[in-house]
Request: fold
Amino acid sequence: MPDVIVGKAADFADPGRKVVDISGTEIGVFRLGDEFYAYHNICPHLDGPACQGKILPLATEAVCEDKSSTGRIYSKTQTNIICPWHGFEFDIRTGRHPTDGNVRLRPVPVSVRDGDVYVNVPVRN
Ligand code: FES
Reply:
């Protein structure tokens, strides 16, 4: 399938996302800064609409030597998409789950040309 335009880069929030339907294939297109990423809107857990979840920084729990918590720490470098069905998280830059890199969203080629964002969806047979 040829590249399909999904919108103007400037119209995406940062961080932000748009979920599009291209000939029956749902694709989540994400913006982080000047970079764009795209994935099939199918969660590897139970096929939920992973790309439609909340966009949040990776959160980790800081634990003291006595095992008490000092609270959450929010990453300044990793932003995740959180599947709305059961909460699986995926790094928007890689599509991978933070603790199991084998669990990942299926990537879709995305490019920006002359201010427009394109995706290339493989033809289904
Ligand atoms: S379907 Fe996405 S976390 Fe279960």
Remarks:
- Strands lie at 4-8, 16-22, 25-32, 35-40, 54-63, 69-82, 89-91, 110-113, 116-119.
